[in-house]
Amino acid sequence: MASTQVVKIGPCGGGGGSEKNMDSSSITRIVKISVRHGVAIDNFAVRFVRNGREESTEQWGGQGGNLTEFNLQSTEFITAVKGYYGNFNGNFVVRSLKFVTNLGTFGPYGQEEGVPFELPAINGQIIGFHGRSGQLLDSIGVYVKVHNY
């Protein structure tokens, strides 16, 4: 019999800013990601479905950078988040993000400089995020819904 559990992975990045956390309970899928980016990731937000209704996170970070948004198809889900974190103006922050889905890739957004990281969803899908932010996205981690067979 198959069962599922949610596993918290990460975060990757620096320790500045304040803690951010999506309540991943009852989330069935992510429908949209918004990223503001330039030489680093300025801002990050997620739209998702919980209990049959769409909801959104607050914006994690500041208002700088260029806005990029992408929608996931109804059968599409995130299988990994990749990126770089490193020093920017004396702080360790997320410098770049790339989202890998079962159907393709979105990004990279920001600059691929610093320490590379990968947050994979092995045998599952990413259904939520956690991390830290202030004026920029300081760190990012994921919640993975794992399918046990």
From TrEMBL:
Sorted UniProt keywords? Lectin
> Would the keyword Ion transport turn up in this protein's UniProt record?
no
Region of interest: Disordered: 1-22
InterPro entries attached to this UniProt entry: Jacalin-like_lectin_dom (IPR001229), Jacalin-like_lectin_dom_plant (IPR033734), Jacalin-like_lectin_dom_sf (IPR036404)
**Cross-referenced Pfam families:** Jacalin
Segments forming domain Jacalin-type lectin: 6-146
The record's annotation in CDD domains points to: Jacalin
Source organism superkingdom: Eukaryota
Statement: the UniProt record of this protein carries the keyword Ligase: no
Write one Gene Ontology MF term. Answer: carbohydrate binding
**Protein name from the UniProt record:** Mannose-binding lectin superfamily protein
